[in-house]
């Protein structure tokens, strides 16, 4: 492939490339091994789990399960042998399990949300650049967080803690959690704004849906111009959508209390868990105490009913981004 190094030779077998780097050229999909022979067991372990034909892509000590972007894309959209473990894709599934054993099951708890077969990088949701690129290519979109994933637990725990019902209503059962992948044009302006004002919090916002987005198997945004959910995912939040008649003027309304917007979203709606950069907070104690952002502040908070009906309001489009979608 490279035309520089001689073809790799091992145990008397000659391969068509000099080594794994050339053999597994990421974008091109690499070359085939071993030509016309039955692969040995250790070759099988480095063969792409999708095409079973080319060597897996490698970067340093990092071995991927696929040969290149095309096969990775297929893996991410549910490709691969359904009888094999959904994490390692090599060993057979145990009866009534998605995995080959406890090791893969526990690794899947911290897996990349895109390929689901490699560890996610720390606080990020993806395993690396390839999966991030794939995810961003088709943004805006939602990626399901599996119920046995650490991120599901984190979101569900946050939701339970933020559930402060005024009449003792029980915490509703979350059916699906999705990570929201927004268009890249929305990422930078938020980060810049957050750096400027600081004080990032997680707040809820609920809305109805014109569609079934987020229900089992429904992950494609609808094209309705009036669908409140899909429109936020496409254009992010917009203060223009807030009514000037709102309790604090034309703004973006959220709440630190999960119950507040849950009521607005039902029946059939959804909740967004958002990151909000509050900066310097103006604490209000009555509706319409202010109807625009007071000078010297970045947000307005009204801790109505001891926070059980908390109102957290920002007046800047770049002060908020949706992070997770919750469906009940
Ligand atoms: Zn080469
Ligand atoms: Zn492949
Ligand atoms: Zn496995
Ligand atoms: Zn990945
Ligand atoms: Zn929709």
How would you describe this structure to a colleague?
The chain is an alpha+beta fold and 328 residues long. The chain has three domains: 76 residues, no CATH class; 56 residues, no CATH class; 185 residues, Phosphoenolpyruvate Carboxykinase, domain 3. It has nine helices and 13 strands. The strands form four sheets. Strands 5-6-13-9-7 form a five-stranded antiparallel β-sheet. A four-stranded mixed β-sheet has the order 8-12-11-10, with no helix packed on it. The longest helix has 14 residues. 35% of the residues are buried. Bound molecules: zinc ion (ZN) (5 copies). One zinc ion binds next to loops. This is PARP catalytic domain-containing protein.
Write out key terms for the chains shown.
Phosphoenolpyruvate Carboxykinase, domain 3; 9 helices; binds zinc ion; five-stranded antiparallel sheet; alpha+beta; 3 domains; 328 residues
Layout of strands and helices, then pairs:
Elements: E1 9-10, E2 13-14, H1 20-23, H2 41-44, E3 58-59, E4 62-63, H3 69-76, H4 102-108, H5 129-137, E5 141-145, H6 150-162, E6 176-181, H7 184-197, E7 200-207, H8 228-235, E8 252-254, H9 258-265, E9 270-277, E10 281-284, E11 299-302, E12 311-314, E13 320-327
Parallel strand pairs: 10-11
Antiparallel strand pairs: 1-2, 3-4, 5-6, 6-13, 7-9, 8-12, 9-13, 11-12
Bound molecules: zinc ion (5 copies).
- Average residue-wise pLDDT: 88
How many strands, which pairing sense, and closed or not: the largest β-sheet?
5 strands, antiparallel
What's the number of domains? 3
Number of strands: 13
Could you estimate the helical fraction of the residues in percent?
Answer: 10-25%
- How do the strands line up in the largest sheet? 5-6-13-9-7
Protein name: PARP catalytic domain-containing protein
Organism: Postia placenta MAD-698-R-SB12
């Amino acid at each position: 492939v490279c035309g520089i190094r001689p073809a790799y030779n091992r145990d008397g077998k000659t391969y068509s490339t000099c080594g794994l780097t050339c053999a597994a050229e990421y974008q091109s999909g690499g070359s085939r091994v071993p030509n016309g022979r039955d692969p040995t067991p250790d070759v099988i372990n480095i063969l792409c789990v999708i095409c079973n034909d080319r060597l897996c892509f490698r970067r340093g000590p990092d071995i991927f399960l696929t040969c290149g972007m095309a096969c990775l894309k297929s893996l991410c959209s549910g490709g691969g042998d359904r009888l094999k473990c959904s994490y390692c894709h090599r060993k057979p599934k145990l009866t009534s399990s998605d995995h080959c054993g406890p090791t893969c099951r526990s690794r899947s708890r911290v897996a990349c949300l895109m390929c689901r077969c490699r560890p996610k990088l720390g606080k990020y949701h993806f395993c690396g650049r390839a999966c991030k690129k794939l995810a961003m290519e088709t943004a805006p979109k939602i990626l399901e967080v599996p119920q046995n994933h650490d991120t599901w637990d984190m979101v569900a725990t946050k939701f339970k803690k933020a559930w402060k019902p005024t009449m003792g209503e029980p915490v509703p059962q979350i059916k699906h959690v999705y990570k929201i992948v927004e268009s890249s044009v929305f990422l930078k302006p938020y980060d810049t704004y957050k750096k400027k004002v600081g004080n990032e919090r997680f707040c809820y916002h609920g809305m109805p849906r014109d569609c079934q987005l987020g229900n089992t198997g429904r992950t494609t945004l609808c094209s309705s111009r009036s669908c409140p959910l899909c429109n936020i995912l496409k254009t992010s939040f917009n203060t223009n959508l807030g009514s000037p008649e709102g309790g604090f003027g034309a703004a973006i309304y959220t709440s630190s209390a999960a119950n507040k917007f849950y009521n607005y979203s039902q029946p059939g709606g959804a909740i967004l868990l958002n990151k909000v950069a509050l900066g310097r907070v103006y604490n209000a104690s009555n509706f319409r105490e202010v109807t625009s952002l007071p000078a010297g502040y970045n947000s307005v908070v009204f801790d109505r009913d001891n926070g059980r009906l908390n109102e957290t309001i920002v007046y800047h489009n770049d002060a908020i981004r949706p992070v997770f979608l919750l469906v009940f």
